[in-house]
Amino acid sequence: MNPKITINLRNGDTWFCLEQLSPDTKFDDFSCSIAEYDDYLYKDALRSQNDHIALTWLLRERTTGIIAAYMSLIADAIKLSLSEKDIHSLNYPFKTLPAMKIAKLALSQNAQMKYKGVGSYMIFNALALARICNRQLFAARFLTVDADIEHDKGVLAFYEKNGFIPNAELYHKNRKTVSMRKDIYA
Ligand SMILES: CC(C)(COP(=O)(O)OP(=O)(O)OC[C@H]1O[C@@H](n2cnc3c(N)ncnc32)[C@H](O)[C@@H]1OP(=O)(O)O)[C@@H](O)C(=O)NCCC(=O)NCCS
Prior knowledge:
Bound molecules: coenzyme A
Strand content: 25-35%
CATH architecture: 3-Layer(aba) Sandwich
Number of helices: 5
Shape: globular
CATH class: Alpha Beta
């Protein structure tokens, strides 16, 4: 498989390229205002990708080449209660269900000021990749995220507006994040 796969996508009037992080990737001066997310991209994302821990996708403006956003995707599994499984009509005798997780998602400060909807667009892209996996590679019924409310409580609203709901089973485990899921086929 080509590790430098690039998919051209359009958002409003701006054309973007969604491409996988590679050893040749030039980072410009990506900054999203949360040091932890910047450090991850600069220092850990490539190592994590080489170790098959997380695969990172970059969203570039096609005309300027500037990185507007990135997300790291990983395989996941979530535990759902009986009533949670009922919501999705998943009548199976096991609690753990397959998922794909957005392990990291961040927009550059510039993109946050310049565009509206790029965060949602990244989720749309994650869903599209999950559907490709489902058709061709392996099953993942949910898109999941640990919404980082430590840095910004508002991200909960962002994910809710994008159709995610909190997971009751995992809700109180770690108060810095809220475990959330979106049914890819709802
Ligand atoms: C969180 C983030 C990805 C959102 O991206 P974005 O492009 O601003 O989001 P969108 O424009 O697609 O927003 C969709 C909706 O969510 C709302 N929303 C987005 N971010 C929000 C926030 N921080 N607080 C409250 N609401 C928010 C928007 O107002 C919009 O609502 P509307 O449809 O009613 O207008 C982006 O601000 C970011 O990268 N933040 C820094 C890193 C981070 O916190 N990542 C998440 C880690 S889990």
